[in-house]
Design brief:
Helices cover 0% and strands 47% of the residues. It is built from no helices and 13 strands.
């Protein structure tokens, strides 16, 4: 069963909000797998509102340590099947959430994708969407953290990012 998560609260009467990247490395979205379930990545992506002031990078990676984030509400982890069950992702400020205030000290990571953002407008796309083929889909182990992390060194940009995943035994 696939689920989708955005880096911010779910829109209601207004459009999906973007979140500023800041000028140092920052986790924009983090998913925390429970101790009983892995997740398999289906797709992910982002949209930046403007080019950064200096070349930047947006990366998707698994880490062993949580960033401190704004906790996502259960309603923010949307099941794409209207008759499906709620996700088992762990929610909380050291779990599933967005807009990190502290990165934590990662000691082990696995990078699934990394995208360069050129500081010259028009040199690189400001939108990225990636979908893995079924036999290439990465699996995030139990009790790990999946992050979309942005590094825009001199000028913050507004970013929207998302991840679609399924939970696997």
């Amino acid at each position: 069963m696939p689920y989708k998560v955005w880096n911010g609260p779910m829109p209601t009467t207004a459009a999906q909000a973007s979140v500023t990247t800041g000028t140092a490395i920052k986790t924009m979205l983090q998913l925390a797998t429970p101790s009983t379930r892995q997740i398999q990545l289906i797709s992910w992506g982002f949209t930046a509102d403007d080019a950064p002031g200096a070349d930047g990078v947006i990366e998707l990676l698994q880490t062993d340590v949580a960033a401190t984030v704004t906790a996502h509400a259960a309603s923010g982890v949307q099941n794409l099947d209207p008759n499906g069950t709620a996700s088992l992702l762990t929610l909380g400020t050291s779990a599933t959430g967005y807009t990190a205030t502290a990165e934590g000290s990662t000691t082990a990571s696995r990078t699934f994708d990394a995208v360069a953002l050129d500081s010259t407008a028009g040199n690189s796309a400001l939108t990225h969407a990636w979908q893995w083929m079924p036999d290439e889909r990465p699996i995030v182990a139990v009790s790990k953290f999946l992050r979309v992390r942005a590094t825009t060194p001199t000028t913050a940009v507004d970013l929207r990012c998302w991840i679609i995943f399924s939970e696997v035994g």
